[in-house]
Amino acid sequence: MEAARKEDNQQVLKVLEALKQASQDLHKNPTSKNNDSNSSPIKALLELQTEADNILSNDPNLSKLSNHISNLKNLISNLNQSYGHGGIRSFLLRRVNRYEISRVASSIETEIQAWIDRESIENLVNSLREKLVDEEEKVKLLRQFEERVSQGFDLNLQDLVLKWKVFSVLESVLCDLNCSKQVRERSAFAIAALVQFNKDVFVGEVLMGSTVKALIFMSSSSSIQVLCSLIRLIKSPLVDEIESKGGIPKLINLLNSQQELLIKVVTLDCVLEIGYFGRKEAIEAMLEAGLVKKLMELQKSELGGDLIEMSEFEEEEKECDGVCVGGVEKKVKGKKQSRERRFFEKHPFVSCVARFAIQLEVGEGLRQRERRAFKQEIVKRVREAAVSDAEAATVVAEVLWGSSP
Questions:
Q1: pTM for this one?
Q2: Could you tell me which PANTHER family the record lists for this protein (predicted)?
């Protein structure tokens, strides 16, 4: 029974997608010189009408769409009849009809998208709740949902998401240790997409639920990437939640040398975001967890270094680029940014101590006196962690004077 239903829905979806494309074309170009029943978008809609009528009549959710298609057929007929008459009245009627055709075509597109959204969300929720559904199918549905909500706010879509309690379903999958890592990570990305979709509604869900704890507990590169995205979206309240859940030490431990490179790179990004948005308690927790020492270890690694090396790298790149004739400012600036990006790709941990200190300096979470106090604390911890006076002097100079590009 369920298989037959899915097959029917696939047939409906195929027809509706064709109708949607034709409606889009017609909405974009309703005033074509050859705007009659033989024009491409209109012809496509009329050819699909007979097939669509048989399908639409079986689904009460599509009755409105059926009415729109019938209305469109009448408008097209009126438009064609008006071409047989001259005068200002016929000209005005054609203008009105073309406007109405464009409006109805847009309504058809909206109704089709609403049907697709209903079916997609119902299918997503049922699949995630069903243990026997193939994992690849779940990942596919999660990607489709993420892509859909990433297209921008839609009130009807939001109503469906709330009606089906999609956030709760995604969060339960994220927290379910019996689910595969891939499905849990895709659920995490879908949650981040929902927050981006409407922060007013879904930020509260994140802060009150178990999402933050689950992301930290997973400690994968994808989960930390999502956590970093949520920090950028929610800012200080999300950092407060991480700190209150005891997640700061867990994150700092991910910077250890035995972790895989990608995890360390995304964790550093997360640490820098926390430095920018974090309040006093979060920054204290990071320093107490040994952040400065770990950053210095990363900075001394092959993928670290200081920004003096970046200057040398830029000089080498300039020689490769050659002389820029004409002195176009945007072109020079674009090349500089491109060189910096390539350098950081090869040296992700360069001057990471100073970069963290600068995040505190320019960030939103600290008062001015707290910034000054933390800078001195960082300098103190640098000197304690340095293996030589030369190393300490180099890092302290970057921290004090600010060397972030």
A1: 0.83
A2: ARM REPEAT SUPERFAMILY PROTEIN (PTHR35834:SF3), ARMADILLO-TYPE FOLD PROTEIN-RELATED (PTHR35834)
